[in-house]
Design brief:
single chain; six-stranded mixed β-sheet; alpha/beta; Rossmann fold; 10 strands; about 20% strand
Length: about 375
């Protein structure tokens, strides 16, 4: 039997889930969530759930339940509090709730109508999987085995001589209850690597990097719901590319020109060295403001994409972040060369934080 507190808790979580879905676009565009990530949890402020509060006013010896009156006598509104003390207007309340990244991914998938990804390749990483293998005398009520429990109760009733064929009522007690038990075993699991590349030349400012940081968080959240384990690599580049850690990727300050081909070449080297395309699902993402050094380097980029990166990737994604100093030409070159070939490449323009929502759908809505 489900306890009342469990029903109330489930109802509360359903309300929270509905509020998150309703405000998802707002949460996606804000960077606070990225900084609130704990161990598999995210703290999300929910302002719409009203917290019970007391209403203060003057107590002058009259009012409801005070003094003479007859049934049906209308009640007048009391006078509000005076001065700078407590008033009668409700305040704004924020309730922070912890949401698991798995649940956040489900909400994201439902709201953006994201299809489940179909992994490719052989599988090398082992994952734990539980399988029901036996019967135990203790366990959660949700795993109680009805037939086994009834059988034990029937055996006890017969042995004690309290069973009646004319009134065959059998009531299990604690000692009769039996539960399904499980055994954890290792099974092969698809694995994936996400390679983030970002232009950090002088034209990419802090706001552009923050947009990339927020979008990368949501991309990671969704991909981790589709794969048991994911490896992530980070590449920054101006005229020269280098591999860095997560913190450096989002905080490095560079300047100078831009050669996008340097990032694509390093991406290819990392894949060739560390990730067998037959065994890994590979997701390269590149973010830039669209400036590149000369048409010759752009031709080199197109060549690397077509001959090196496309053949080994599930899909290549390019996000162009609008900048006051960027020309935006690179996306035009990609679209002109590859057109609507969304089986191999997806491009998206991110004008500002409000564009993150649609960009995520552009990248993940294909189920690659």
């Amino acid at each position: 039997m489900v306890k009342k507190i469990e029903k109330d808790y489930s109802r509360f979580r359903a309300i929270v889930r509905g509020q998150i879905k309703k405000e998802l676009r707002k949460y996606i565009t804000r960077g606070e969530l990225v900084g609130k990530v704990g161990k598999n949890l995210v703290s999300i402020p929910i302002p719409q759930i009203q917290i019970p509060h007391f209403r203060y006013g003057k107590n002058d010896g009259s009012g409801v339940g005070m003094g003479p009156g007859e049934p049906g006598t209308p009640l007048e509104q009391g006078e509000p509090g005076e001065g700078t003390g407590a008033g009668e207007q409700p305040g704004d309340h924020l309730l922070e709730v912890d949401v698991t990244l798995d649940e956040l991914a489900k909400i994201l998938g439902e709201e953006l109508a994201l299809p489940n990804i179909k992994p490719k390749g052989s599988r090398t990483i082992q994952a734990d999987k539980a399988k029901y293998t036996g019967i135990a005398r203790s366990g959660p009520e949700s795993l109680r085995h009805f037939k086994r429990t009834y059988r034990e109760a029937l055996k006890r009733s017969i042995s004690l001589g309290i069973y009646s064929a004319e009134n065959p009522i059998v009531v299990p007690v604690r000692e009769d209850k039996r539960y399904r038990s499980w055994k954890v075993r290792e099974v092969p699991q698809n694995n994936a690597v996400v390679i983030y590349m970002m232009d950090v030349s002088g034209s990419m400012g802090d706001e552009q990097k923050e947009i990339v940081r927020i979008e990368a968080f949501w991309i990671d959240t969704w991909l981790r719901s589709q794969y048991k384990r994911i490896e992530t690599r980070y590449i920054v580049h101006d005229a020269i590319a280098k591999e860095v850690d997560h913190h450096t990727f989002f905080h490095v300050k560079e300047s100078g020109g831009t050669k996008i081909s340097s990032a694509f070449q390093l991406c290819t080297d990392i894949i060739d060295r560390d990730f067998n395309a037959a065994e890994w699902n590979i997701y390269p993402f590149h973010f830039s403001d669209g400036d590149n050094w000369g048409s010759e380097d752009t031709r080199r980029c197109l060549e690397l994409l077509e001959t090196k990166i496309f053949p080994v990737s599930n899909v290549f994604c390019y996000g162009q972040v609008k900048s006051a100093y960027g020309s935006g030409q690179f996306k035009k070159d990609l679209d002109e060369k590859f057109g609507k070939d969304d089986a191999r490449i997806i491009t998206s323009e991110i004008r500002d934080r409000e564009g993150i929502y649609d960009s995520i759908k552009d990248f993940l809505g294909k189920g690659k």
